[in-house]
Design brief:
mainly alpha
């Protein structure tokens, strides 16, 4: 049992470090939290967490090996994900133009479902996530693990992801942070938009 507990702790630490690395999820959560509210930020987090659950389940089921071992499938997922990130980034850049007063196009999304969907698609846009989760499970799982350990590992990874992104959304929705955003929102939206476009281009170019 001690070995299994150590496995879950290792997964939690690796997942925390992975989530804390700046990437598309970070830019989406901060964008909604800054320009909208904590509620909108948490809706985006909901989509991201559901995406994390999907990737973790696929990896635990062993489908990560299939995806990474099939170049054409992996390439199709990678290009589709890159196109989505570039599209979101361009929307933000368009909204950041002075003629629009620096109002991000993401602010124009009205329904809760669309915010959740944006978080979900942003997370699912990176096919490297399934390789990431697969490598975690392969690296830290003991030989012949019990079936419950897979579910515990998936739950641990998703829980850590949820806690991290809820913390990020809460931080960037605080009034002092949002006041700073209001002063520099055009520049901030430009930086966030360019970051997403660059991440998309990088994903499309690098294998």
């Amino acid at each position: 049992m001690t070995v299994y507990f150590g496995t879950l702790v290792s997964i939690a630490l690796i997942q925390l470090l992975g989530a804390a690395s700046p990437g598309p999820n970070f830019f989406i959560v901060t964008s909604y939290s800054l320009a909208g509210s904590l509620r909108r930020g948490l809706l985006a987090v909901t989509g991201i967490v559901v995406g994390s659950l999907c990737w973790a389940l696929l990896a635990a089921a062993g489908l990560g090996v299939l995806v990474t071992a099939t170049p054409s499938l992996y390439a199709a997922l990678r290009i589709a994900g890159a196109a989505y990130l570039i599209w979101v980034g361009v929307k933000m850049l368009f909204g950041a133009s002075p003629s629009r007063g620096g109002v991000s196009q993401l602010d124009a999304i009205d329904t809760d479902w669309q915010v959740v969907r944006a978080g979900f698609l942003t997370n699912m846009a990176n096919p490297k996530s399934i390789a990431y989760y697969s490598s975690i499970f392969a690296a830290v799982f003991p030989a012949d693990p019990p079936a419950w350990l897979f579910w515990a590992a998936v739950s641990t990874a998703v829980a850590v992801s949820a806690i991290w992104w809820i913390s990020v959304a809460t931080l960037f929705s605080l009034m002092p942070v949002r006041r700073g955003y209001e002063r520099f929102k055009t520049k901030i939206n430009t930086v966030l938009g360019m970051a997403l476009v660059c991440l998309g281009l990088r994903m499309a170019i690098l294998r």
